[in-house]
Amino acid sequence: MNVDIDRHGAFRGCGQILLINVDIKSETETVSSHWHRKSAIQVVTARPHPHKCDSYCSIYRPTTAQHKVQMLSRVSLRISSQKNIRFSSTELKNLMREKYIPNKREQLTRIKKSSASVIGQTTVEQVLGGMRGIRCMWWEGSELDAEKGITFHGKTIEECNRILPHGPEQGATQMLPESMMWLIMTGEVPTEKQVRALSADLARHSALPRHVDELIDNLPKDMHPMTSLSAAIASLSHNSVFSKQYSDGSITKDKFWEPAFDDSISLLAKIPTIAAKLYNRSKGVSKVYKADESKDVTWNFAENIGFGDKLPFVEMMRLYLALHADHEGGNVSAHSTHLVGSALSDPFLSYSAGLLGLAGPLHGLAAQDVLRFILQMHQWLPKNYTEKDVEQYLWNWLKDGRVVPGYGHAVLRKPDPRFTALHEFSSKSDSISKDPHWKLVDIVSRVAPQVLKEHGKTKNPFPNVDSQSGVLLHHYGMKETEFYTVIFGISRAYGVLPQLVWDRALGMPIERPKSLSLNAIEKMMSAQ
Ligand SMILES: CC(=O)SCCNC(=O)CCNC(=O)[C@H](O)C(C)(C)COP(=O)(O)OP(=O)(O)OC[C@H]1O[C@@H](n2cnc3c(N)ncnc32)[C@H](O)[C@@H]1OP(=O)(O)O
Ligand SMILES: O=C([O-])CC(=O)C(=O)O
């Protein structure tokens, strides 16, 4: 039921009621889930009085004579000044409920009827070789082909950038990560109106609960920001609607996806706020995140870290965030999110784990390592260096037994199309293409494949996305290399959280593959 709140904070409601002080800011979901948990009676939804805007007000909980009136702790409720708010995440959720999930459930039932079909075999080489190529994982949003690279529901990066809604400014040409998220979740291209409303919704939910702010304030200033980001995301679990509803038993399995969806939207809304706070803190800046509902997530993020007045930076960042969102399911960050989620850990805990995987140097941390590598090489090279000098540097590096960051890939066997997309963006920009560090990145991308081929170990000698991304951030003035993987971490959430919602919607079970010891492998081999 709805409870009206009038201009003076008095109530219009129902039977016996309970008054709660509400301070405006964040966490509508805290309110409802708190009630869910506390109340065996009725679940209440509070809605703001139509004329009451952005001020303290009161909300009420109905109760009955049998139930003791309880004073709930102070809860926060964001009351927006906008009338007739269209919660686009609600629209997306409704579409999921009414259209996409029933269709996909039907497909799953069909597939399960002949689920004994064989789709692959496993070799010992695969078991001992990082499980390469084993077809054992379900993933909807994107697919990686070794030669062609990533496609999102069959659409190439170039196609996505053409057809997905862009930023609201005139002349904006880059797809928004919100648009990409919609495509990844539904398989369909959203309308501009749907994306604008989604951006507004994410802006509305961007404020952090106080405990997250305090947690970040108490972390060591020199802690790697990926560690801090993961810790802060895990701490949002305290407000998880999914875990609260699961633990109080108020949802059945077929409805698990709903709070997983709410938590995912909340995480997407808050991760830029956390990232901005970490970035500003590293620079000694204390600033409250302000998200403008008429702008997209990237613009708001850029604004809050001090880059808002530079549209080229915002456009580059939009492309960056959309590009890195998903790379099918087997990569470390996606797989770990999916795995942890399979234990019904909530989306915050699951993605916190994914971020910890992203923080490894063979995965997302390569973004920071590449930039350091390029800066170091640039210092070492003579002023008018040639490709031969670059080649020499790479050989020295390899002879030291180190991997060339930004090169190679577990699946790809051609240059990464994400690298190509960023390269095209940069080549069209006068200022980037004149940047001496970008020029070096460009030269390395031609020289390194030859060197790596001759070196003879790397299966894929070509550049991956990380070899290009950091130099763009550096070019626009973001010199804090430790922060580069944090940007990647914002982006990856747009791909893996939709999958987590699907995991719960289709009732995917806990993951538990079979492991084998070397003795067991030998025994099986000799038996053949
Ligand atoms: C967004 C992303 O996560 S993209 C990847 C980001 N990571 C990097 O750029 C780090 C550098 N690259 C690498 O370390 C690897 O290419 C990975 C981790 C991406 C893929 O690993 P694998 O699938 O095991 O690569 P591959 O099968 O080609 O490895 C074979 C050998 O080549 C070596 N090799 C692979 N890439 C490189 C490289 N860039 N420089 C030097 N040696 C390399 C491996 O270390 C391995 O050596 P070993 O036999 O002595 O252990
Ligand atoms: O696919 C992988 O293994 C690594 C990668 O490029 C990504 O996760 O973006």
Automatic annotation (TrEMBL):
<dbReference type="InterPro" id="IPR019810">
    <property type="entry name" value="Citrate_synthase_AS"/>
</dbReference>
<dbReference type="InterPro" id="IPR016143">
    <property type="entry name" value="Citrate_synth-like_sm_a-sub"/>
</dbReference>
<keyword id="KW-0809">Transit peptide</keyword>
<dbReference type="GO" id="GO:0005759">
    <property type="term" value="C:mitochondrial matrix"/>
</dbReference>
<dbReference type="GO" id="GO:0050440">
    <property type="term" value="F:2-methylcitrate synthase activity"/>
</dbReference>
<keyword id="KW-0496">Mitochondrion</keyword>
<dbReference type="InterPro" id="IPR036969">
    <property type="entry name" value="Citrate_synthase_sf"/>
</dbReference>
<comment type="similarity">
    <text>Belongs to the citrate synthase family.</text>
</comment>
<protein>
    <recommendedName>
        <fullName>Citrate synthase</fullName>
    </recommendedName>
</protein>
<dbReference type="GO" id="GO:0005975">
    <property type="term" value="P:carbohydrate metabolic process"/>
</dbReference>
<dbReference type="Pfam" id="PF00285">
    <property type="entry name" value="Citrate_synt"/>
</dbReference>
<keyword id="KW-0808">Transferase</keyword>
<dbReference type="GO" id="GO:0006099">
    <property type="term" value="P:tricarboxylic acid cycle"/>
</dbReference>
<dbReference type="InterPro" id="IPR016142">
    <property type="entry name" value="Citrate_synth-like_lrg_a-sub"/>
</dbReference>
<dbReference type="InterPro" id="IPR002020">
    <property type="entry name" value="Citrate_synthase"/>
</dbReference>
